[in-house]
DNA sequence: TTGAAAGCGCTACCAA
DNA sequence: TTGGTAGCGCTTTCAA
């Protein structure tokens, strides 16, 4: 009788904690195993099943998932890391992921890296403690520590929102460089020649940097002179970024006739600042965004932008993860490890 | 030797799965308990601690949280349900919660109810399986099933974003009715007399309904004639709601001189529609929002709105939950079970 | 179709 | 300061 953590229950005592599987079993007059089978949907005689279900309902029994995971050796967690939950972009991706994974009873473990790679590593380490079946990260830049943790964990990994040459494991995204180049070409086709770029000052927003790189490459390729780049403000780029960035651009290059922004947020801020300064959009100044947020469609003038299927990134990631966790033995062919997501310039009135 | 789930490891075999605490113990030449103590930060001789730490690093050992939770009888999960992760309002609340809870090693289990009470119940049931230490819900309306589940679970519960007369357990929020009434008074003080209201058509957005109720009460109390209410569109109310709602309002009551919107999103949509129709804001039509999103400050004209401390709701909720989980034995006094969050009309240019 | 026993990986408890 | 043992609540495995 030594070493008992909880005092033995005296017969007739009210059960102390929440009901356990053995309580259900006793009430239904069956063994624990039968209860377990009913819960798992395995074959059990109809009459037995009904008695067990009744006992479950009567006691309000909820099975302990931690115990189940420990015993069966597989958890139902999927770890997901995004730079920011507030961004509609990433929250759409999360919605796409849930939509795919929830029907399989998988539980998302969500984390918000705040565009901070060290924080990402801390979160990965902390989430790995729950033995997730797989993990989805944003971007393809990670600390060495993060990579090491992931490699050692040997679980399927998807990197989202980018298209790295050599992903850790799998990737679902698109080339931000190419998308930005397409926007420059679009602006050039519309007749703009003095095109500026408004981006963030932080090197942590890799996707923003890629867009900047694409802008610079295409400006050079098209012979549109020296790039006109303003880098201002921290990630994530917010609406309030647009106004001061536009002012800085016009202060340095007053003859600019179009501006391409790292996101719809800053494009919106820039357009509102144009309203304030009496600059007509697009007549005096064209403004283009990136992301095709709802904001871009509702703004006056509606914002020309690059639409990206954020929800699709989530749901395709979910599919890859499902395939990888369900059939872990069948390694995917390399060409199936990278999923390219569509993107396109959406022409509206602002540019 | 029967009933062994995994075949016994032959001496010299490479360990099959990830390293376990016993692997670390063996490598460091100590018992599992000592490893456990090092991880928990309990007192261990410095030299021993260092050897153990070295073994942990060498193996890349990550402790299994499910096993720990099962053994110790307490998990590190906190369940959190919000209507929508995409809304900056609720994602701010989540940030406030994380900021308070993460330092204590607590892991958020986030769920998105999509403004659907049945879905809320499903999520609560599913999260309860992980034996969370406590749970935070949004709003004070829940299904009977949800209430029953929560009562039976006997864990601390906080209802956020509302101020119910009788909370399930604890509440952190404010009265949406009172806040809306203050906005009507503000508009009246500014000289507006024909004030309309733009809200959603769904009865699921309780906070939106409360704001409508506050509007109606105060319009009557101030003798401002019959309420002018347009209810259009599903929850959550988005930017695209504003334009058609404004059109409907003006079609029915062309002489309206001010409009109060259920959220900054629809206020923004309404203002953009005013731009399109050549209606000057606030000269021809005042527009007020609710929530004080970044959008409201960046819009041209900047939007007069009700600011609510969304982040504060999260961090105060975190404090309550910490107090309740850490000192579960000390029941809070009833007057400490309800935390009122400040809100205030922010006067800007739009009204 | 059902049951009994063992054990998943960890921590509480007591002993040394 | 450290170690041994029992057991958390469940599922796997095999037997009936």
What tags apply to this protein structure?
6-stranded parallel sheet, disordered N terminus, Rossmann fold, 3 domains, homodimer, 434 Repressor (Amino-terminal Domain), 4-stranded parallel sheet, DNA-binding, alpha/beta, 351 residues
Task: Give an account of the 3D structure.
Two copies of one chain form a homodimer. With about 350 residues, the first copy, chain A, is an alpha/beta fold. Chain A has three domains: about 45 residues, 434 Repressor (Amino-terminal Domain), CATH 1.10.260.40; about 130 residues, Response regulator (Rossmann fold, 3-Layer(aba) Sandwich), CATH 3.40.50.2300; about 130 residues, 3-Layer(aba) Sandwich (Rossmann fold), CATH 3.40.50. In chain A, β6, α9 and β7 form a beta-alpha-beta unit. The N terminus of chain A is likely disordered. Chains A and B meet through α4, α5, β2, α6 and α7 of A and α4, α5, β2, α6 and α7 of B. Chain A binds a DNA duplex (16 and 16 nucleotides) through α2 and α4.
Query: Number of helix segments of chain A?
Result: 13
Oligomer: homodimer
Main structural class of chain A? alpha/beta
Mind summarizing the main beta sheet of chain A?
6 strands, parallel
What is the fold's blueprint, element by element?
The structure is a homodimer of 351-residue chains.
Chain A: H1 21-28, H2 32-40, H3 46-59, H4 65-72, E1 77-82, H5 88-101, E2 107-112, H6 117-128, E3 134-138, H7 144-153, E4 157-160, E5 170-173, H8 176-189, E6 195-199, H9 206-221, E7 228-231, H10 242-252, E8 258-261, H11 264-277, E9 286-288, H12 294-298, E10 305-308, H13 310-326, E11 338-340, E12 343-346
Parallel strand pairs in A: 1-2, 1-3, 3-4, 4-5, 5-11, 6-7, 6-8, 8-9
Antiparallel strand pairs in A: 10-12
Helix pairs in contact in A: 1-2, 1-3, 5-13, 6-7, 8-9, 10-11
Chain A binds a DNA duplex (16 and 16 nucleotides) through residues 2-6, 20-22, 30-34, 36-37, 40, 43-45, 48, 63-73.
